[in-house]
């Protein structure tokens, strides 16, 4: 049990526990903060897998962008005069059974498949390699993502004004 | 126990299932969006785990970057829609929004 395994189990426990509390707590703002911890745990897992650039992008875009957007949405779509913002749940027991079955099925498939694993050494720094792939082989996807972001920006701004 | 590919896949499966549970059981539209973000993060962990342990070079991490970009665009548009729904119906519970406008 070396230090890599210990840190992996730590980050995995943080991620899974926070995700569990995201979907079971009744307070929306608390769920948003547990989602923050989930994103941090996932970024830690990315670093353990050698994806350093994707981990930083995850922190910037998800924590610094999407989570702030979600909290603004919570603020705007609830009446300000209520003291605490609570939300209800429906169909907890049937969906727990169904989701448990789904997890069991997928887990059984994962644990019984002989994955073809190639133990390559940990990549040193993925930044320049990702940059050159993005602009050489995947330049079309890059441009399309730029256009998609432009369309999403125009659409969201024109939908959300009075 | 030595950490191999299956450990990361099990973590991503649990996140995926919790995301689906969040989408099914939550009434508030923003909680449903949080469940969707959990599902997207689970699939990202899958991409990067296979990129590390398979023979795919760095393309798995590139696809994870694309998924993050798409998740950001989709969260922005989904929140614009939720704001419009709030303006019309004055609440955002997904099981009470059940009539079209005349």
Overall description:
The complex is a heterodimer of chains A (162) and B (102). Chain A is built from six helices and no strands. With 162 residues, chain A is an all-alpha fold. Chain B has 102 residues and is mainly α. The longest helix of chain B has 31 residues, at 59-89. The radius of gyration of chain B is 17 Å and the shape is elongated. The relative contact order of chain B is 0.13. Classes of the chains: A mainly alpha (162), B mainly alpha (102). At the A-B interface, helix 1, helix 2, helix 3, helix 4 and helix 5 of A face helix 1, helix 2 and helix 3 of B.
Keyphrases for this structure?
A: mainly alpha; Four Helix Bundle (Hemerythrin (Met), subunit A); 74% helix; globular; B: mainly alpha; elongated
End-to-end separation of chain A in angstroms reads: 58 Å
Average pLDDT score of chain B: 90
Q: Topology as H/E string of chain B?
A: HHH
- How many strands appear in the DSSP assignment of chain A? 0
Structural class of chain B: mainly alpha
Mass-distribution shape of chain A = globular
**What's the CATH class of the largest domain in chain A, please?**
Mainly Alpha
Low-confidence sequence ranges of chain A: none
Rounded Rg of chain B: 17 Å
Alpha carbon gyration radius of chain A: 20 Å
Q: Could you say which structural class the secondary elements and strand pairing of chain A correspond to? A: mainly alpha
Total of helices of chain A: 6
Count of individual domains of chain A: 2
Fourth CATH level, the homologous superfamily of the largest domain in chain A: NADH-ubiquinone/plastoquinone oxidoreductase chain 6, subunit NuoJ
**Biggest protein-protein contact in the assembly:** A-B, 79 and 71 residues
- The CATH class of chain B turns out to be Mainly Alpha
Q: Tell me what the CATH architecture of the largest domain in chain A is.
A: Up-down Bundle
Fraction of helical residues of chain A: over 70%
CATH topology of chain B: Helix Hairpins
The arrangement of helices and strands of chain A along the chain is: HHHHHH
**How many domains is the backbone of chain B divided into?**
1
